């Protein structure tokens, strides 16, 4: 349904181009069901489809599902559970969704039992944060705290340093940042 389920390139094995053109009343429930698969490989297929094919309009309709796929580990076949998380956070960052920043920051804490392949979700989370420039400056204290607790020889440690440097040197936020959930604006209230 989402393509690449049989990644051998055989004709007929990639139906993603057909799937993305389905009516949204069929597409959205199908993507939601795919993103909720308990097994990591089928969930990855749906998450990869989201990354490669969804527009900002589609992402807005599926926002909570994409946040969940980035934030929650797969419960079955956990060996590949980092892959759907990667594509979930990468999809949100690709569309400059502001709500991705706290999700990416939370992804840097490895859940008990999910340490194998943690660079597979930490590196994409760090890369996502780096794309937000000055808008992600508030994450720097937490990111810097990991410098003393993460293994300096780990793959994600190098990306941590790069992300910290990128955010620290940013003077602007990228254009097109999008809040997809309602948020409160500050306002001055006078009482008598």
Write the layout of secondary structure elements.
Elements: H1 16-19, H2 24-35, H3 40-53, H4 56-61, H5 63-71, H6 82-94, H7 100-106, H8 119-130, H9 140-145, H10 155-169
Tally of helical segments: 10
Secondary structure class reads mainly alpha
Instruction: Name the helix and strand elements from N-terminus to C-terminus, one letter apiece.
Output: HHHHHHHHHH
Task: Provide mean pLDDT, rounded.
Answer: 87
Can you offer a commentary on this structure?
The chain is mainly α. Helix content is 51%, strand content 0%. The protein has ten helices and no strands. Helix 8 (119-130) packs parallel to helix 10 (155-169). The chain is globular.
Quick structural gist:
The protein is mostly helical. It has helices at 16-19, 24-35, 40-53, 56-61, 63-71, 82-94, 100-106, 119-130, 140-145, 155-169. The chain has ten helices and no strands.
